[in-house]
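User: I'm new to structure prediction. If I give you an amino acid sequence, what do you actually give back? Let's try with this one:
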Amino acid sequence: MELNSAIKKRKSTRDFKRKKPSFKDILEAIDAAIQGPFAGNINNLKFIIIESKDSIEDISNHTGQKWVQNSPALIIVTSNDSHLEDLYGERGRVYSRQQAGAAISTLLLRLTDLGLTGSWIGAYSDERIKQSLGIPEKIQIEAIIPIGYAQNPKEKKKTKTTIEEATYWEVWERNRRPTIFPDPQR
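Assistant: Good question. You get back a string of structure tokens that encode the predicted 3D arrangement of the chain. For your 186 residues, that looks like this:
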């Protein structure tokens, strides 16, 4: 699949088939996510794959989102800020969040490319999930990604921001209609 195609096709799913994704596909998605970019070339991310129904149900309870328990697998994305903070000080935490976001986006696009789907969950009880999974206190949970095959992969129209709404020129809030043609008034 071409990248632009995966970008436009990707959508969050809450209704999964029971079929589990292959371990190979899960690892391919994670491998795509760890290709970077990383500040100072420091990959501070770790991924926990959850396939046991009991563990998925436990994690679901800590998200407050019941639908998560119907997912055949989860990927828990974690980070360790300490190496980045050693190198960049307080700013290292910002870089850690940025590279986690980039990795999660890449992971979701690769899942789409493999015929899978996932959702990015950011609302959960850090403490309870850390306790359930034995995650050390210094490690950050960046996201919980329920993954699988969409039960009803309907083409749903996405409501998205237009390019005009998302783009400013030169300074904050200066709008100009983007065009591939030169501006005749210049």
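You can read the tokens as a compact description of the fold. Here is one thing that stands out. The chain has one domain: 3-154.
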